[in-house]
Amino acid sequence: MSENTRWSVSVSKETDIAVRIFLAQRGMKKGDLSKFIEEAVKWRVFERTVAAARDKFADLPADALDAVLSEAVAAARQPNAD
Fold first, then answer.
1. Residue 30 pLDDT more than 70?
2. For residue 22, which of 10, 12, 32, 11 has the smallest C-alpha distance?
3. Which DSSP state fits 60?
4. What are the sequence ranges of the domains in the chain?
5. How far apart are CA 29 and CA 31, in angstroms?
6. What burial class does residue 28 get, using C-beta atoms within 10 Å of its C-beta: 0-12 exposed, 13-18 middle, 19+ buried?
7. Residue ranges of the alpha helices (H) in 1-82?
8. Rounded-to-integer distance, Cα 75 and Cα 82, Å
9. I need a labelling partner for 37 at 20 to 30 A (CA). Which of 9, 10, 12, 53 fits?
10. Residues ≥6 apart with Cβ < 8 Å to 20
């Protein structure tokens, strides 16, 4: 089981109400707010990471990008040499 860290965050009253209504409509309880926030943060970090990667390789020709991706996939599929 992972260790939790407590955050103190501030959001607008409108956001608070909207999220609580959203959770309540789906049968979720007050304690589910933390799970919802964690999932939302993970998705946002993922989206930002993907956007940064796309920006970094935007000027790379498609065939060169395919070669880089193929090489990365092949390396990731190699058994661990440790």
1. yes
2. 32
3. S
4. 34-82
5. 5
6. middle
7. 13-25, 32-56, 62-77
8. 14
9. 53
10. 30, 33
Per-residue confidence at 82, pLDDT binned at 50, 70, 90?
low
CA distance 41 to 46: 9
Average pLDDT on 11-32 reads 92
Contact 36, 23 (CB under 8 A): yes
Q: What is the mean pLDDT of residues 9-17?
A: 95
Q: What are phi and psi of 33, to 5 degrees?
A: -60, -40
Name the DSSP letter for residue 8. -
What is the residue type of 39? E
Integer CA distances (angstroms), 12 to 15, 17, 19, in order:
5, 9, 11
Token pair 């880089």 in the structure block, residue: 68
* pTM of the shown model: 0.69
